[in-house]
Amino acid sequence: MSFPGILTPRLELVTLPPEFFVAILEGLRPVASSVADFQVPVEWPAETDAPWLRLRLSQLRQDPAIQPWLLRAVVPREGPRAMAGYIGFHSRPRDDGTVEFGYTVLPPYRRRGFAYEAAVGLMDWAVREHGVRRFILSVAPGNTPSRSLAQKLGFRSRGATCTKSAGGSSCTNSSVCDSSESHRCSRSVARAHWRALRILESPIDAL
After folding, report:
1. How is residue 189 annotated by DSSP?
2. Are 101 and 135 in contact (CB under 8 A)?
3. How far apart are CA 177 and CA 129, in angstroms?
């Protein structure tokens, strides 16, 4: 199945088919690049990415139509078609209309505003095409740039959540963005001129 990308002024958020995940999990980077029609960087994925990549492949095999909701490559529209990072929802929206997403920008492409632009683009798509109004974003407590971005987008902290595994424990700070409650979130997902987008000043809980 083929699904269109999401276009922002500088980026394309490209959906990824099952064949991409199979190739990348088998270490066949040239095949993955050919399938996706962009260059996959040599530093990605890390070994620690394998479990969640397998999970996304399993989700796609069970429900091919879920592809637009899962992982998308962040590809700059100018210059060589190369993967600058990735972004995506973890699943379809829940019954209450809430959906969670995450993102990563690879080191060579950081400090260019790509994470913000990709997040607004993804949220705008979910609002415009599917009526989503509530988003969840989980950020590691020590990830200051992502915490700042969540605050800029209008997310309000819901507190830390810790999980335990055989390898130890890990914690994330879960934040929520509800456009019916937050002027910042509402403005972030509004269909507006991208370059004129400004975040309205309104108090939000400290992250």
Report:
1. T
2. yes
3. 18
